[in-house]
Amino acid sequence: xxxxxxxxxxxxxxxxxxxxxxxxxxxxxxxxxxxxxxxxxxxxxxxxxxxxxxxxxxxxxxxxxxxxxxxxxxxxxxxxxxxxxxxxxxxxxxxxxxxxxxxxxxxxxxxxxxxxxxxxxxxxxxxxxxxxxxxxxxxxxxxxxxx
Length: 147
Ligand code: HEM
Description:
Globin-like; globular; binds protoporphyrin IX containing FE; mainly alpha
């Protein structure tokens, strides 16, 4: 339907430049919740956003996030086929100390990145379409949290 069209059309160009767009998203994430920097320690130091952005492991994570979004966009017609993958992904995030509540802030950062990149093409229906898809991804990831 219309939602899928809005998502696919907007991702068409964004998906070709994953890292720069992912950096906009994560820079926003750390502005909204600087505490999340602590979860990206790796071997390198993620004491600040700049430290994080100069760590290859962190940039790899940015790419990984964008690839999951890319997978969701390509599976809009059968998102449930990603459920097992996303449940396991949720499990890994619980293990590294992420709280499910943080996914709301990630969602806000995703919308911020879309707004920055799409300009006037960022409309209320487009925002809602992305939120709907993101909510499905987050629900599937959150099912991986052990109680
Ligand atoms: C792995 C942190 C959100 C996708 C990881 C790792 C950390 C981490 C520390 C393990 C090290 C690594 O692979 O780089 C976080 C934090 C997040 C967040 C703090 C936000 C609060 C997300 C989101 C997605 C995602 C929203 C995708 C929608 C991945 C993937 C991996 C990963 C694909 C690799 C899992 C594997 O090794 O199989 N994340 N992450 N992350 N993350 Fe995230």
